[in-house]
Specification:
heterotrimer, A mainly alpha, B alpha+beta, C mainly alpha, B: alpha+beta, two-stranded parallel sheet, C: two-stranded antiparallel sheet
């Protein structure tokens, strides 16, 4: 059980998907200006990450041992179809949710975080349960990073930023500072 | 998949050169044609990958074997070759019944006169930042280690990565007696079990000691058993 | 948006500087930040991406008439994924150490927004020659951006360039630059530099022609049709 907890906390804090592993940077740069949007994007990501993790475990266990070199292609095809299916299902089941989340789902497909999760999970040799904890932890970490960045950016809109730093320059410096801060989580589980 | 799949952070990529030279396919394309195109594309893609795989796989496998062989000879002084022995239900066997991909394994090194010189064991556990992966050599006859090599780690550069760069630390594992004891400072008596932790990388160093101790706790018994059976078989007699 | 014929040189150079995928458009940041801690890794990643971009642009441009537009994104992704798998296998066989250093990020070239973006915006609508030029220009721009960051990070973080030590043993490396935070900082400072440059240009009516390009790039590029 402690192993699973370590996997979750490690993915969420110590090796944060966005701030340490550089996954999910497209939404991080583009969608992190409002806390509400950031939360919704994060939520959508956690959802897709969890499903992807399960599917990846399944593929790794049963289909891919015959053709390991087709791993990348099958992952990306599955992820793309998955997002399409999820989008259709949400549209049918809850139009309200679709209106709030819908625009993000297509952005998620080419989001490095989803494919990155599938690949990292495979490389670490996680089974289905470990992969699930990894995905949830990673998703929570991504959401955390997004929300932190959004709250900081909301604040920066109220102050005067030097002209040369406006836009992405500032966001990147902020991200670097957040990344440094998250380094403090290392060693969380050691005796 | 829809048009909205294009991910853009905050720029519009499709702005320039918008006049198309030719559009793709007739309007209202039949489902057969859609599926057919993808199927053909998929088949060609698969074929290309398989060909490249056949061409590159031998080299990839050779490199992997070489890295392992180098690691084993590095931690087992005097080993020229090694044999992989699998752990099946608590005992070591060179020819297991089950699928070897799932089994734990150790590497028995053979040296001069084709005599066994030791057993190399891999292990990995979370260190400070992420999992540290290492291989160490163990001599079952004397119960001491013959060497340790860090294979992979993500420890902090300049601090935790000293586990790879501090040669005094690495050499301390040669001749160390199991179970290891990590200490902050070398004591004058210097028991054979003690390994001095690296200042500024205490957690990483301790993780290494823990990995080795845990693996030996798990495998020392079966290894000794297998070792004594080897001795009886070796042509040159027991060591 | 007045149409203007773009010459082949412009098609090529546009990707290199004015619309540099990493520095101006901020695409493909995942690899740009993750593997640029040494110049060797940056070069390898840049070349691998260049190969994938060129290969897929060629195929997409060649087959643009055969691919029905309803499934074009899937087809592009399939093509890109194939090239990435090939690049991955070849790198593993030829330079296994670098392959290990780049790790999973080679596979992540597939979701590099830059590549899919070029197929959709350009290669699928242009004849082979221009598609190739555009791919090469964007690829070169990507390599330049990565090398810039890699140099910054390796020189400051290791005190070396391509593994060759530059400063004496007394040099205290700026470890931050090779940590993940350093990736963010490096690109951030480069963008800060661009921002400063643009500001200065905006305040001086007479700028040099090369400054103009940066300013133009900071504003949305006007549409050009061939």
């Amino acid at each position: 059980m402690t192993d699973l907890l370590w996997i979750l906390i490690s993915a969420m804090l110590v090796n944060n998907f966005t701030l340490m592993l550089f996954l999910g940077l497209c939404p991080f740069m583009g969608v992190s200006s409002r806390v509400g949007t950031a939360l919704r994007m994060g939520g959508a990501n956690i959802f897709v990450l969890t499903i992807t993790s399960l599917v990846a475990s399944f593929l790794n266990a049963y289909i891919l041992p015959w053709a390991p070199y087709l791993r990348l292609i099958s992952f990306i095809v599955v992820i793309a179809s998955l997002v399409q299916i999820v989008e259709t299902v949400i549209k049918k089941v809850s139009p309200k949710l679709f209106r709030e989340l819908g625009i993000f789902l297509p952005l998620i497909t080419t989001n490095c975080a989803i494919l990155g999760l599938a690949i990292f999970q495979t490389n670490k040799g996680y089974d289905a349960l470990e992969g699930l904890f990894y995905a949830v932890g990673g998703g929570l970490g991504l959401t955390l990073a997004l929300v932190l960045m959004a709250s900081i950016r909301e604040q920066t809109e109220l102050v005067s930023v030097p002209a040369m730093a406006r836009g992405m320059g500032l966001v990147l410096i902020l991200a670097g500072s957040l990344s440094l801060a998250f380094m403090g989580f290392a060693g969380l589980f050691s005796s | 998949m829809s048009d909205r799949m294009l991910p853009m952070a905050n720029t519009d990529v499709s702005g320039s050169d918008a006049e198309p030279v030719a559009t793709g396919g007739p309007d209202g394309t039949s489902a057969i044609r859609l599926v057919g195109t993808l199927a053909v594309a998929g088949a060609l893609a698969g074929l290309a990958i398989v060909l490249v795989f056949q061409w590159t796989n031998p080299q990839i496998e050779a490199y992997r074997a070489e890295v392992l062989a180098n690691a084993v000879t590095e931690v087992l002084a005097g080993a020229d070759r090694y044999e992989t022995v699998f752990v099946e239900e608590g005992t070591l066997t060179a020819a297991p019944a089950a699928d070897t991909a799932d089994l734990d394994r150790v590497y028995v090194g053979f040296g001069a006169g084709d005599l066994p010189v030791g057993v190399a064991i891999q292990g990995g556990e979370p260190g400070f930042q992420d999992v540290i992966s290492l291989i160490f050599g163990f001599d079952p006859a004397s119960g001491t280690l013959t060497g340790m090599k860090v294979l992979e780690h993500k420890e902090t550069p300049g601090l935790g990565d000293k586990i790879e760069r501090d040669s005094a630390f690495i050499r301390a594992f040669e001749g160390a007696r199991s179970p290891l004891l990590g200490v902050k400072q070398a004591r004058a008596s210097g028991a054979a079990q003690e390994v001095v932790m690296i200042t500024g990388a205490t957690i990483s160093s301790r993780a290494i000691v823990d990995i080795i101790n845990h693996r030996l706790a798990e495998l020392e018994g079966p290894v000794r058993e297998y070792w004594s059976s080897l001795d009886r078989q070796s042509p040159g007699g027991s060591r | 948006m007045s149409p203007r014929t773009t010459t082949p040189q412009e098609v090529f150079l546009r990707g290199v500087w004015r619309e540099n995928p990493v520095l101006i458009q901020l695409l493909g940041l995942c690899p740009a930040l993750a593997v640029t801690n040494t110049v060797a890794n940056s070069l390898a990643m840049g070349l691998a991406t260049f190969f994938v971009l060129l290969g897929s642009s060629i195929l997409v441009s060649l087959f643009k008439d055969l691919i029905p537009k309803e499934v074009r994104i899937s087809a592009y992704i399939l093509i890109i994924a194939t090239f990435v798998t090939i690049a991955d296998l070849v790198l593993n066989a030829v330079v296994p150490e670098i392959h290990k250093a780049l790790g999973a990020f080679i596979a992540l070239i597939v979701v590099n927004c830059m590549i899919l973006g070029r197929q959709e915006a350009f290669a699928s609508k242009q004849p082979l020659g221009r598609a190739v030029l555009d791919a090469m220009g964007t690829g070169v721009g990507f390599i330049i951006a990565l090398l810039l960051m890699g140099t910054l990070r390796e020189v400051l973080g290791y005190g070396s360039f391509l593994g060759i030590a530059l400063f004496g043993p007394g040099f205290e490396p700026w470890i931050i630059m090779i940590l993940p935070a350093g990736g963010f900082f490096a690109l951030g400072f480069i963008l800060l530099g661009f921002g400063w440059w643009t500001e200065r240009k905006a305040q001086q009516p007479k700028g040099r022609r090369w400054m103009n390009e940066v300013t133009d790039a900071a504003a949305p590029p006007s549409g050009e049709a061939s």
